[in-house]
Amino acid sequence: MYSADGHHLGSVDAVVVGDDDRLTHLLLERGHLWWKREVALPAEAISKFESDMLTLGLTKRELGKAI
Amino acid sequence: MRGAIVEAMVVLSTSRRAKRPWTGGATSSRGSLNETSSSEAADERISVTRRARNQARTPCTSCTTPAQKPRGEATITFSPRTLNETEPSRVRHRPDRTMRVGDEVAMVAKVADVGQLSSYPVSDGVTVDLDLRGGPSSSHPVGTMWPRAMPLRLERTHRLGGEKMKLELGTSVRCADGATRELVDVVIDSSSSRVTHLVIQPAQHAEDARLVPISLASRAEKDGESEISLNCGAADLERFDPVHKFEILRAGSGRTRIRNGTSESRTSLLRQITRPPRLGDYGGSLDSDVTISYDRVPKGEIELRHAELCVLGGRAPPRVRGRGGRGR
Q1: With contact defined as beta carbons under 8 Å apart, do B213 and B197 qualify?
Q2: How far apart are the C-alpha atoms of B279 and B277, rounded to whole Å?
Q3: Residue A2 lies in a domain
Q4: Given A3, A11, A17, which is nearest B307 (Cβ)?
Q5: In angstroms, rounded to a whole number, what is the distance separating the alpha carbons of residues B201 and B25?
């Protein structure tokens, strides 16, 4: 995954669905081979759904603060 | 025959006393008709099924009148035409979700063949009467079949409060008959942010991927680890729509456009394009046809796959990585 300015964000590793099958979190895998971590992004952070592409309503700085 | 009915009801009433809906398994978090997680539950289900085969079509005595409906269940009424076509005896639906024309409901065609789930689209002739009052679901006795004129019984999908299900892409999914499949993609309704379907395929057989409604999936525990189980067998998966479609474009046919399709589905994802070899390249043969493959998901929904692109701030991505290939 890459941000618009070329920053690597990670890959969608899993999705978490809640009681009514509503998407609650996206689990992203970030980091390198020897330092990987999983980041849970709340679904509220997604502003636009498209096939093959999810657009977040957060800037990278905001995302960095959130995680 | 009366003894058989009473016997079946006793089995179910025992499970009710255990404060959980009859799901056929101890670890299911959703309504289920044929999920197997313990030998005891399997034996119980088999015995109930055999009793059901010996019964005549008897309406469920506990559900025939609204005042006696089990708590937490909903009712759907099909038009006689639809009823005669499908002859369903049970319908499973999630009452917390508004049913619309075009939605799919999973139902069991015959109670005697518990486990043969099918999905049918809701047509215009369907009248939906949802009763959401009440608490957790409690199944009415297995083996009682609805006569054709009777309203169908819905089982409310039950999941413990606040319980969440993690859908990890690339992990295995266990079918009701013990077969394992792989969860490769999820399909999300972009308007409501709900996961509607799972893309399930046999390991190493991507061409057999199927679009399975998420209502058939539930979370289960096995050996202390959480896994996803399906309330249908591996053979039942063949009934669902395949995800991957292939088309061969003849040389010289000009540009092709993947149409926005029918009212039920559309082509949404161009997965791979195999172009004819350029002059000077080894092409193997003189066949210059172009083969394209793409995924079909319900209209208005998107497919989320492993290694999906994620963009910050809504700006255009530099490239797309993952199985979708480079570029769009």
Answers
A1: yes
A2: 7
A3: no
A4: A11
A5: 24
CA terminus-to-terminus distance, chain A:
16
Per the structure, how many domains does chain A have? 1
What pTM does this model have?
0.47
- Inter-chain residue contact A53 with B313, CB threshold 8 Å: no
Q: Which among B215, B310, B319 has CB closest to A28?
A: B310
> pLDDT tens, B281-291?
555 555 556 66
What are residue B81's phi and psi, to 5 degrees?
A: -65, -50
Residue A63 counted as domain residue: no
Q: Residue A53's domain spans which residues?
A: 11-58
The answer to ipTM > 0.90 is no
Residues of A in contact with B307 (CB under 8 A): 1, 11-12
Q: Where are the domains of chain B?
A: 2-156, 167-328
- CA distance linking residue B176 with residue B195, whole number of Å: 21
Q: B4 and B51 in contact (C-beta within 8 Å)?
A: yes
Q: Cβ A15–B268 below 8 Å, yes or no?
A: no
Q: Chain B contacts of A52, Cβ < 8 Å?
A: 269, 303, 305, 308-309, 320, 322, 324, 328
pLDDT digits 0-9 by tens, B4-35: 433 333 333 333 333 333 333 333 334 333 33
